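> @MW can you paste both from yesterday?
MW: sure, first one:
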Amino acid sequence: MVKSGNYDVVVVGGGFLGLNCAFFCAEAGLKTLVLDQAEPGSGASGGLVGALSPHLPRNWSEKKQFQLDALISAARHWKKIEAISGLPTGYGRVGRWMPLDSERALENARGQEPAALEAWSGEYEWMVGPAPSWMSPEVATHGAIHETLSARIDPRKALASMVEAVRRKGAEIRSGARVLRVEDGIVAMDTETFGAAHIVLAAGMGAGPLHAQVVSGGMGRGVKGQAALLTDPGGLPGQMVFATGLYIVPHGTDLIAVGSTSEQDWVDGLTTDEQLDDLTARAVEVCPSLGRSSVVERWAGVRPRAPKPDALLGPVPGRENIWFANGGYKIGIGISHRVGEMTAAMIQGRKVELPERFKAASHGLTAL
């Protein structure tokens, strides 16, 4: 087996979490290599929707604060990536509408207002009022919520921009690089190995066998999502819409993304079916003008869910130089730059305030 070189950091996985880890490590002057078993963003990161939205403001937690900090700093980060790469990301803080279909939903929405004012420091608004004219009155019988914190990003444009920015920072990216083994100081493929002072496991659904080599307790599971890209029929504003599991995301061009399903049980993670048909039909029920749209693309992928529905971040138990950056599940894109910053900081020996619930022990993972 050929020894192919030594690196300060080897990142296994080229999705949003892995690329952001590589970006901040390379920016810090660390010799960095990214290994992806296919192409960067070819897994769940390369989807269609790109909704960056906060958790509900009531019942505040360290997880919600972590996500809020990421959402607030996202505009600065993606502007920086665009400036370095010269490529667009499709990022925009556009806000979000949510229809209210019952008295109970209306009461809950109003109950969130004081929490939003406190948790969001008055910088962003959570407003309950009449539904907009373009929203079906049948799904918004009790009005609608409009909040101004949510943003959108075009996942594929952002991935291309990230790849270029990572390379311009001096990191190396290898595609078609299937990692078979990781251990302290070594990353091994079938024909070559790399020396690594630090290893970051950010391979999404492909990380299971590698996790089993370094911890006991299990990877978690994958949750399938299906989404579609529709033509913009006109008549809709630039804001996103969320209606009980359904996102409608105008991407600022002539396309609108609709998604995603959350399928716990599935056979083929890459095929679409009638569940996506049902989702697009619901989108028309919410925004009737979408009935004039045509489907440009149907997509399916499997999002990595750690043992608990939280990100899995930080040091691997019992290892001094192997790090987790995985399990972003539904908020992975939105927190990815903050994960990258914190991972790079930990690798450099700096102290960070990582939420306890993100750490390996909280997921029931222990050293081998």
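MW: second:
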Amino acid sequence: MRANYHSHTVRCGHARGTEREYIESALAAGMEELGFSDHAPFRLPGLYPGIRMAPEELGEYVSVLRSLRREYAGRIQIHIGLEAEYYPAGFPGLLDDARREGVEYLILGQHFPGNEAGEVYFADAFDEPRRLDRYVGQSIEAMQSGVFSYFAHPDLAHFTGDEALYRDAARRLCRCASDCALPLEINLLGLRLGRNYPDERFWRVAGEEGCAAVLGCDAHDPEGLRVPEAERAAMAMAERCSLRVLDRVSLRPLVAEGGGL
């Protein structure tokens, strides 16, 4: 991998290692670009604890990464992003905070429906068609917003019901991604940990719909940026599914050129 845009920090409450350790690990892996995209700090009531940074940490997050970007200039390109759900009640405020602090890009990671509070995690196994429809519908709204650079683990929804219904839902999502020119991430952390994603059922549909794919480390520790076995497994699946895998992603900026990035 020449680039990874999906890396976390200790601020999310379930990752470890310093930003410098992540950068050094990326350099050791031969990467030329490293994006940090820690879990976004929504200002919403009732959010589950331990899975995202607090709003008051966002400024320090950006400041630390800006300093390291200057220090490592010429050796590796550092990008400052966030992984964010599309929560309608909190999304405008999140965009305001991110733009004010100079966050460079967003990747979509739709872990919960609605606005999260009181909802069920999409990666927990379920067979209710309505929940699958909520995942696809909310993800489509997110993609059509035009602010995300790519869709992380788009196959996260762990649907165990009717296969034909799953294929139809995956096709709706993939067609929207193709229409929006939004790459879909093959998640290497899911491969390493044996999660329900990557789900080859989904990626066969993505290949049929001509979707672009990108590998994402989803690194929650520095070692997560050096995963050659997972890379090989992901590329083998991509070949089986006739996927076009991008080396790099053209990030969609959240602020205008010259706006403090």
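> thanks! Helices lie at 19-28, 58-71, 91-101, 129-144, 163-179, 188-193, 200-208, 228-240.
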